[in-house]
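User: Let's play a game. I give you a shape written as C-alpha coordinates, and you guess the letters that built it. Ready? Here's round one.
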Protein backbone atom coordinates (compact mmCIF):
# COMPACT_ATOMS: atom_id res chain seq x y z
CA UNK A 1 0.00 0.00 0.00
CA UNK A 2 1.03 3.64 -0.17
CA UNK A 3 1.47 5.59 3.02
CA UNK A 4 -0.65 8.30 1.44
CA UNK A 5 -3.69 6.25 2.47
CA UNK A 6 -2.67 6.29 6.12
CA UNK A 7 -4.38 8.76 8.46
CA UNK A 8 -2.54 11.76 9.83
CA UNK A 9 -2.84 11.79 13.61
CA UNK A 10 -3.30 14.59 16.12
CA UNK A 11 -0.77 14.88 18.93
CA UNK A 12 -1.35 15.84 22.52
CA UNK A 13 0.82 14.89 25.47
CA UNK A 14 -0.51 15.80 28.91
CA UNK A 15 1.29 17.17 31.99
CA UNK A 16 1.63 14.58 34.75
CA UNK A 17 1.25 11.66 32.33
CA UNK A 18 4.12 9.90 30.60
CA UNK A 19 4.37 6.88 28.38
CA UNK A 20 6.29 3.81 29.46
CA UNK A 21 7.62 0.58 27.98
CA UNK A 22 5.51 -2.52 28.56
CA UNK A 23 7.43 -5.01 30.77
CA UNK A 24 7.13 -7.88 28.28
CA UNK A 25 8.45 -5.69 25.47
CA UNK A 26 11.49 -4.70 27.51
CA UNK A 27 12.08 -8.34 28.44
CA UNK A 28 11.91 -9.53 24.82
CA UNK A 29 13.94 -6.71 23.30
CA UNK A 30 17.49 -7.60 22.24
CA UNK A 31 19.43 -4.34 21.67
CA UNK A 32 22.10 -6.30 19.76
CA UNK A 33 19.91 -6.85 16.70
CA UNK A 34 20.86 -4.50 13.88
CA UNK A 35 21.14 -4.29 10.10
CA UNK A 36 23.89 -6.46 8.63
CA UNK A 37 25.00 -3.76 6.20
CA UNK A 38 26.28 -0.31 7.08
CA UNK A 39 23.71 2.46 7.03
CA UNK A 40 23.62 4.60 3.91
CA UNK A 41 22.96 8.32 3.97
CA UNK A 42 19.30 7.56 3.25
CA UNK A 43 18.86 5.14 6.18
CA UNK A 44 17.34 5.99 9.55
CA UNK A 45 17.93 3.62 12.48
CA UNK A 46 15.31 3.22 15.21
CA UNK A 47 17.25 0.85 17.46
CA UNK A 48 16.53 2.33 20.89
CA UNK A 49 13.51 3.14 23.04
CA UNK A 50 11.28 5.88 21.65
CA UNK A 51 11.96 9.17 23.45
CA UNK A 52 15.23 10.49 24.90
CA UNK A 53 16.87 8.77 27.88
CA UNK A 54 19.26 10.08 30.54
CA UNK A 55 22.26 9.78 28.21
CA UNK A 56 20.60 11.70 25.40
CA UNK A 57 20.08 8.47 23.46
CA UNK A 58 16.70 7.19 22.41
CA UNK A 59 14.75 8.01 19.27
CA UNK A 60 13.09 11.42 19.21
CA UNK A 61 10.92 13.13 16.62
CA UNK A 62 13.47 15.97 16.58
CA UNK A 63 16.21 13.54 15.57
CA UNK A 64 14.09 11.91 12.86
CA UNK A 65 13.04 15.29 11.48
CA UNK A 66 16.70 16.33 11.22
CA UNK A 67 17.57 13.07 9.45
CA UNK A 68 14.76 13.53 6.94
CA UNK A 69 15.83 17.10 6.22
CA UNK A 70 19.36 15.86 5.56
CA UNK A 71 18.15 13.05 3.29
CA UNK A 72 15.92 15.36 1.32
CA UNK A 73 13.26 14.28 -1.14
CA UNK A 74 14.65 10.83 -1.91
CA UNK A 75 13.62 7.31 -0.85
CA UNK A 76 14.44 6.45 2.76
CA UNK A 77 14.89 3.15 4.61
CA UNK A 78 13.92 2.91 8.29
CA UNK A 79 15.43 0.03 10.29
CA UNK A 80 13.55 -0.75 13.50
CA UNK A 81 14.39 -2.78 16.61
CA UNK A 82 12.75 -1.04 19.53
CA UNK A 83 10.67 -1.97 22.61
CA UNK A 84 8.60 1.19 22.25
CA UNK A 85 8.51 4.01 24.76
CA UNK A 86 6.96 7.45 24.45
CA UNK A 87 3.75 6.86 22.50
CA UNK A 88 3.23 10.52 21.69
CA UNK A 89 6.78 10.85 20.38
CA UNK A 90 6.05 7.74 18.30
CA UNK A 91 2.96 9.38 16.79
CA UNK A 92 5.05 12.45 15.88
CA UNK A 93 7.62 10.23 14.13
CA UNK A 94 4.81 8.37 12.33
CA UNK A 95 3.51 11.70 11.00
CA UNK A 96 6.99 12.72 9.82
CA UNK A 97 7.49 9.50 7.87
CA UNK A 98 3.96 9.55 6.49
CA UNK A 99 4.53 13.05 5.13
CA UNK A 100 7.94 12.29 3.59
CA UNK A 101 7.60 13.07 -0.12
CA UNK A 102 9.55 10.04 -1.35
CA UNK A 103 9.08 6.32 -0.77
CA UNK A 104 9.63 4.96 2.74
CA UNK A 105 10.70 1.35 3.29
CA UNK A 106 10.46 0.00 6.84
CA UNK A 107 12.54 -2.99 7.95
CA UNK A 108 11.57 -4.60 11.27
CA UNK A 109 14.86 -6.24 12.24
CA UNK A 110 13.91 -7.50 15.69
CA UNK A 111 10.83 -6.18 17.44
CA UNK A 112 8.70 -3.12 16.80
CA UNK A 113 6.63 -2.90 19.96
CA UNK A 114 4.04 -0.38 21.07
CA UNK A 115 5.04 3.11 19.84
CA UNK A 116 7.62 1.51 17.54
CA UNK A 117 4.88 -0.55 15.86
CA UNK A 118 3.01 2.67 15.04
CA UNK A 119 6.18 4.05 13.46
CA UNK A 120 6.53 0.82 11.46
CA UNK A 121 3.13 1.38 9.88
CA UNK A 122 4.32 4.60 8.19
CA UNK A 123 5.98 2.91 5.23
CA UNK A 124 5.03 2.38 1.62
CA UNK A 125 6.56 -1.07 2.10
CA UNK A 126 7.01 -2.85 5.43
CA UNK A 127 9.34 -5.84 5.64
CA UNK A 128 9.84 -7.95 8.77
CA UNK A 129 12.43 -10.54 9.79
CA UNK A 130 11.11 -14.08 9.96
CA UNK A 131 12.00 -14.10 13.67
CA UNK A 132 10.78 -10.53 14.15
CA UNK A 133 7.68 -9.37 16.01
CA UNK A 134 5.23 -6.52 16.07
CA UNK A 135 3.48 -5.84 19.36
CA UNK A 136 0.32 -3.74 19.54
CA UNK A 137 -1.58 -2.69 22.64
CA UNK A 138 -3.55 0.18 24.13
CA UNK A 139 -1.64 3.32 25.06
CA UNK A 140 0.62 2.43 28.00
CA UNK A 141 1.29 5.25 30.46
CA UNK A 142 2.34 6.13 33.99
CA UNK A 143 0.12 8.56 35.87
CA UNK A 144 -0.53 9.62 39.45
CA UNK A 145 -3.58 10.97 41.22
CA UNK A 146 -6.81 10.04 42.95
CA UNK A 147 -9.69 8.09 41.42
CA UNK A 148 -11.16 11.21 39.82
CA UNK A 149 -7.85 12.01 38.15
CA UNK A 150 -7.53 8.42 36.96
CA UNK A 151 -11.00 8.47 35.42
CA UNK A 152 -10.14 11.72 33.69
CA UNK A 153 -6.90 10.25 32.32
CA UNK A 154 -8.73 7.12 31.10
CA UNK A 155 -11.22 9.29 29.21
CA UNK A 156 -8.37 11.34 27.78
CA UNK A 157 -6.62 8.17 26.54
CA UNK A 158 -9.58 6.80 24.57
CA UNK A 159 -9.02 8.93 21.44
CA UNK A 160 -5.38 7.80 21.27
CA UNK A 161 -6.41 4.16 21.36
CA UNK A 162 -8.95 4.96 18.65
CA UNK A 163 -6.13 6.54 16.63
CA UNK A 164 -4.10 3.34 16.93
CA UNK A 165 -7.11 1.33 15.72
CA UNK A 166 -7.41 3.66 12.73
CA UNK A 167 -3.71 3.37 11.82
CA UNK A 168 -3.53 -0.42 12.09
CA UNK A 169 -6.88 -0.78 10.36
CA UNK A 170 -5.83 1.42 7.43
CA UNK A 171 -2.68 -0.66 7.01
CA UNK A 172 -4.27 -4.09 7.29
CA UNK A 173 -7.91 -3.72 6.31
CA UNK A 174 -8.87 -5.59 9.51
CA UNK A 175 -12.20 -4.62 11.07
CA UNK A 176 -11.90 -1.88 13.71
CA UNK A 177 -13.60 -4.00 16.35
CA UNK A 178 -11.12 -6.83 15.82
CA UNK A 179 -8.16 -4.44 15.98
CA UNK A 180 -9.53 -2.98 19.23
CA UNK A 181 -9.71 -6.49 20.72
CA UNK A 182 -6.09 -7.11 19.71
CA UNK A 183 -5.06 -3.91 21.47
CA UNK A 184 -7.01 -4.84 24.59
CA UNK A 185 -5.17 -8.12 25.03
CA UNK A 186 -1.68 -6.91 23.93
CA UNK A 187 -1.01 -8.89 20.79
CA UNK A 188 2.38 -10.16 19.58
CA UNK A 189 2.50 -10.83 15.84
CA UNK A 190 5.36 -12.89 14.40
CA UNK A 191 6.98 -12.34 11.00
CA UNK A 192 4.83 -14.54 8.76
CA UNK A 193 1.67 -13.76 10.73
CA UNK A 194 2.34 -10.04 10.28
CA UNK A 195 2.39 -10.57 6.53
CA UNK A 196 -0.69 -12.80 6.55
CA UNK A 197 -2.65 -10.20 8.53
CA UNK A 198 -1.49 -7.24 6.45
CA UNK A 199 0.76 -5.52 8.97
CA UNK A 200 3.77 -6.19 6.72
CA UNK A 201 4.29 -6.79 3.02
CA UNK A 202 7.11 -9.33 2.98
CA UNK A 203 9.88 -11.08 4.86
CA UNK A 204 13.24 -9.44 5.28
CA UNK A 205 16.12 -11.51 3.82
CA UNK A 206 18.00 -13.18 6.68
CA UNK A 207 21.34 -11.85 5.47
CA UNK A 208 20.15 -8.29 6.14
CA UNK A 209 19.86 -8.92 9.89
CA UNK A 210 22.89 -9.15 12.19
CA UNK A 211 23.66 -9.23 15.89
CA UNK A 212 26.34 -7.18 17.62
CA UNK A 213 29.16 -9.07 19.29
CA UNK A 214 29.12 -9.84 23.00
CA UNK A 215 32.24 -7.80 23.72
CA UNK A 216 32.49 -6.22 27.15
CA UNK A 217 31.83 -2.59 26.11
CA UNK A 218 28.74 -3.60 24.15
CA UNK A 219 27.41 -5.75 27.00
CA UNK A 220 28.11 -2.98 29.50
CA UNK A 221 26.16 -0.48 27.39
CA UNK A 222 23.21 -2.88 27.19
CA UNK A 223 23.21 -3.17 30.99
CA UNK A 224 23.33 0.61 31.38
CA UNK A 225 20.38 1.08 29.06
CA UNK A 226 18.35 -1.50 30.93
CA UNK A 227 19.29 0.29 34.15
CA UNK A 228 18.04 3.59 32.75
CA UNK A 229 14.71 2.10 31.71
CA UNK A 230 14.18 0.36 35.04
CA UNK A 231 15.26 3.44 37.01
CA UNK A 232 12.80 5.58 35.08
CA UNK A 233 10.03 3.10 35.85
CA UNK A 234 11.02 3.21 39.54
CA UNK A 235 10.45 6.96 39.49
CA UNK A 236 14.08 8.04 39.90
CA UNK A 237 15.27 11.41 38.70
CA UNK A 238 18.10 11.49 36.17
CA UNK A 239 20.53 12.72 38.83
CA UNK A 240 19.61 9.88 41.21
CA UNK A 241 19.96 7.36 38.37
CA UNK A 242 23.41 8.65 37.44
CA UNK A 243 24.51 8.58 41.08
CA UNK A 244 23.46 4.97 41.52
CA UNK A 245 25.06 3.95 38.23
CA UNK A 246 28.36 5.58 39.22
CA UNK A 247 28.21 3.71 42.51
CA UNK A 248 27.63 0.43 40.72
CA UNK A 249 30.51 0.97 38.30
CA UNK A 250 32.98 1.91 41.01
CA UNK A 251 32.08 -0.93 43.35
CA UNK A 252 29.93 -1.05 46.47
CA UNK A 253 30.42 1.68 49.11
CA UNK A 254 33.11 0.78 51.61
CA UNK A 255 34.71 -1.74 49.28
CA UNK A 256 37.58 0.33 47.88
CA UNK A 257 39.56 -2.71 46.83
CA UNK A 258 36.74 -4.19 44.82
CA UNK A 259 37.39 -4.37 41.09
CA UNK A 260 34.86 -2.50 38.92
CA UNK A 261 32.19 -5.02 37.98
CA UNK A 262 31.90 -6.40 34.47
CA UNK A 263 28.82 -6.30 32.31
CA UNK A 264 27.33 -9.41 33.91
CA UNK A 265 27.66 -7.85 37.36
CA UNK A 266 26.16 -4.60 36.10
CA UNK A 267 23.01 -6.35 34.99
CA UNK A 268 22.93 -8.70 37.97
CA UNK A 269 22.95 -5.91 40.55
CA UNK A 270 20.36 -3.60 38.97
CA UNK A 271 17.52 -4.79 41.16
CA UNK A 272 19.55 -4.25 44.33
CA UNK A 273 20.35 -0.66 43.41
CA UNK A 274 16.81 0.12 42.38
CA UNK A 275 15.50 -1.22 45.67
CA UNK A 276 17.94 1.08 47.43
CA UNK A 277 16.54 4.04 45.48
CA UNK A 278 13.51 4.17 47.76
CA UNK A 279 15.73 5.57 50.50
CA UNK A 280 17.01 8.50 48.40
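Assistant: Ready! My guess for every position:
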Amino acid sequence: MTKRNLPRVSLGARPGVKSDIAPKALERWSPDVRAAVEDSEATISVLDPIGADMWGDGVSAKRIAAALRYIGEQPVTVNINSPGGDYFEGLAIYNLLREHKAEVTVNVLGIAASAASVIAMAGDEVRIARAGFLMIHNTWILAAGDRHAMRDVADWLEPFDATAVEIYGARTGIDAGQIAEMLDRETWIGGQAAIDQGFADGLLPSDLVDRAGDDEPSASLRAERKFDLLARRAGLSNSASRSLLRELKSGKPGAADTEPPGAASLEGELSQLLAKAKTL
